[in-house]
Amino acid sequence: MSDLTLYYFPASYYSQRALLALYEKNAKFKHKVVFIHSGDQNDPTYMRMNPAGQVPVLTDGKKVITESDAVIRYVDENVHTGFLGKRSDEIKKNLTALADKYPDLQQGVSDPWLVGPRFTAADIALTTLLDRISFLGLAERYFTPEVRPLLYSYFKRLGTRKSVQQVRAGIAGIPRLFILRKLKKSSPFVVGALAVGIAAAVAYNIVNKK
């Protein structure tokens, strides 16, 4: 599908879930960053798409999908590349039932991902949670080689996955997004003066090198 557009903010917990789903399915989509700290989500045009004024929002040219769980489900059902597996709520229900019945169950610990050898919607949910814990500087409290070593190994594996790398790169690029936004909102004269200044500096360096 080539008409997909995701409205999101890179640091938003639920936006990250939607992004992971799209990246895992190798979906082609347009990126529309919503600067929630600047109030973009309260813009009338955006509010018509999502009256709750929240991110993410996914559109396909006809439908508007809000809530990250609904976005993940839509992507899984309509983007026919990649793999997400069963619905995350079904997986959560099954895993909870197993954990309650067999609290000491060790079967499957050799699998790289939560429910087997393939990365699924369940992993998306855990990935965003672990990344948020790490972002808050609390990783050493919850998973280290000594504290929950299996969870620590899982977190390290996440760092090798392309979709996770893409989401993390988006977070790291937030300062650049804010700079570009400010430049776009600046007066054309300010931008023009900046360009002239850069050109003058380049010319000065060229002359001095001769």
From TrEMBL:
<dbReference type="InterPro" id="IPR036282">
    <property type="entry name" value="Glutathione-S-Trfase_C_sf"/>
</dbReference>
<dbReference type="GO" id="GO:0006626">
    <property type="term" value="P:protein targeting to mitochondrion"/>
</dbReference>
<protein>
    <submittedName>
        <fullName>Ganglioside-induced differentiation-associated protein 1</fullName>
    </submittedName>
</protein>
<dbReference type="Pfam" id="PF13417">
    <property type="entry name" value="GST_N_3"/>
</dbReference>
<dbReference type="InterPro" id="IPR004045">
    <property type="entry name" value="Glutathione_S-Trfase_N"/>
</dbReference>
<dbReference type="GO" id="GO:0000266">
    <property type="term" value="P:mitochondrial fission"/>
</dbReference>
<dbReference type="Pfam" id="PF00043">
    <property type="entry name" value="GST_C"/>
</dbReference>
<dbReference type="InterPro" id="IPR004046">
    <property type="entry name" value="GST_C"/>
</dbReference>
<dbReference type="GO" id="GO:0005741">
    <property type="term" value="C:mitochondrial outer membrane"/>
</dbReference>
<dbReference type="InterPro" id="IPR036249">
    <property type="entry name" value="Thioredoxin-like_sf"/>
</dbReference>
<comment type="similarity">
    <text>Belongs to the GST superfamily.</text>
</comment>
<dbReference type="GO" id="GO:0008053">
    <property type="term" value="P:mitochondrial fusion"/>
</dbReference>
